[in-house]
């Protein structure tokens, strides 16, 4: 969604002979056949179908009938749905909050200290490994009895924490695990933005006797705002769809404490076989994500006075 | 690009940077030491869990708890790898805290390789064809269709995957490779945008010259555009391979049976089993390593390409 700039028009001669132009259209169509097929079959049609399903009581075995807005009405009184929404927002706030601040710090460190590709590669490593792998790795390291983190805490005199197993800790723990996985990736996105800031600004500031902190406040942050806005859209949209980590560790528990919205949709559709209702909840997710992207890009544009 | 020489600078706070920067570097020396300490701290926190994964995978499950936070494997053994690959006998597996039922990560490894390879091949090839049509050919409605493709990025995957699941069921191909691969095979918006951006940058003079020599579009595409874009094509293939390899949600829906189960799904299943009251931690870590190693190998071979691909240049 970050590519909303108008498509660049080909630079060739504008007045091509009509016969060649028609042949070019047929060639283009031939080149596009597989993609169009994929788009219509697996994106466009299912999107329409998703909206339609949300207006039905589809389940795998019974007959299907049109129920209008019943599913949406049901959602209003569905405590599990509201809990899922609340838990997801809590997760997104924790995850995006920590991740963005830490990634900004890490990106500035990388930018001001070193150009080393090796270091950038190392911090990116967790992002390349599957969510499921990362989740299970931390599930083990944060185990309440013999996990290494609790062993170390114990040595420091702190009582063992049931990171995944307690209602209070489940969401912060999942947020932490995913922050660990995405930190390097987010930092490298910001780092790419930092590299577009002209170095001469920093050199001029240093001549004027500015401190590192002043340079960060007066140069880096203002110049980086458009990039940060894009990073926030990308990471928040991803964060709202948290599933893998929850599915293999807590399965929504304990007592629905980590029953995030995508897990609830999965649970509705494939465990309770309440497909129509699941589709309605996924419509809500779609709308939330669209609103986030729209609002954030709007806000970013309203402030775009800097060199961007 | 003033400090291009810094690329090879050793990671220490000593003032070895360009002479011009020396006075300031000295003035900020304590700050720089602190900054390097923070950076090294981040790298350590990033790498330690990978080491712990290996250390646990080489430990004996029955005595693991006695090892505490010892940095070395507890009661060193290859047993965990042997049992998750189905090489250990039931007795051997149970003696080291594993399950008696046979676990065959070979099968899941094979499935992941097949699925990720097919998806990558399809996405890169069909994506390149489409990107060429968007970047180098003139036809009515091009920008409108491109915009329509863009909107596909806005829809959360789960939204289309619910109906897609029904489609796979109606086609009768649940629990086949086809079901896992098909929705990703023909089109992914990212591949098209990524390659289109590079194709736009290729000088049109080369193409005109080829045309004067009588080459058609198909020939121009295969003989000129693709060979000139090997770099981006390889980068794209790497990114898509890693993504397909790591995918969990879709294979969880359509590939639950053992014969087609991918590694990520198998890990979820394995984790849910607690053979002797507790999860088989060394087995689980050995299995996660098996799932992580192919990606780590790709990273060792092509790390720079992957690192350089991250940024907004390809998308913005």
Reported for the largest beta sheet of chain B, the result is: none
User: What does the overall shape of chain A look like?
Assistant: globular
> CATH-wise, what's the superfamily of chain A?
MetI-like
The share of residues in helices of chain A is over 70%
Overall pLDDT of chain A:
87
Taking pLDDT < 50 over at least 5 consecutive residues as the criterion, the unreliable ranges of chain A are: 1-16
Can you summarize the main beta sheet of chain A?
none
CATH fold label of the domain at 105-272 in chain B: MetI-like fold
Work out the radius of gyration of chain A: 24 Å
Instruction: Write the H/E string of chain A, N to C.
Output: HHHHHHHHHHHH
Q: Just give the CATH class of chain A.
A: Mainly Alpha
- How big is the Rg of chain B? 25 Å
- What is the structural class of chain A? mainly alpha
Shape of chain B: globular
Oligomer: heterodimer
Mean pLDDT of chain B: 83
Task: Describe the protein.
The complex is a heterodimer of chains A (308) and B (316). Chain A has helices at 18-53, 70-76, 79-113, 117-128, 131-141, 148-155, 170-194, 199-207, 212-240, 244-249, 261-271, 275-302. Chain A has 308 residues and is mainly α. Chain A has one domain: MetI-like (MetI-like fold). In chain A, α9 runs antiparallel to α12. The longest helix of chain A is centred in the first third of the chain and has 36 residues, at 18-53. Chain B has 316 residues and is mostly helical. Chain B has a domain at 105-272: MetI-like (MetI-like fold, Orthogonal Bundle), CATH 1.10.3720.10. Chain B is built from 15 helices and no strands. Chain B has helices at residues 22-27, 29-57, 79-84, 90-95, 105-136, 142-151, 157-171, 177-185, 189-201, 204-212, 217-228, 230-246, 249-254, 263-272, 281-309. The two termini of chain B are 22 Å apart. Classes of the chains: A mainly alpha (308), B mainly alpha (316). Chain A: It is found in: Cell membrane.
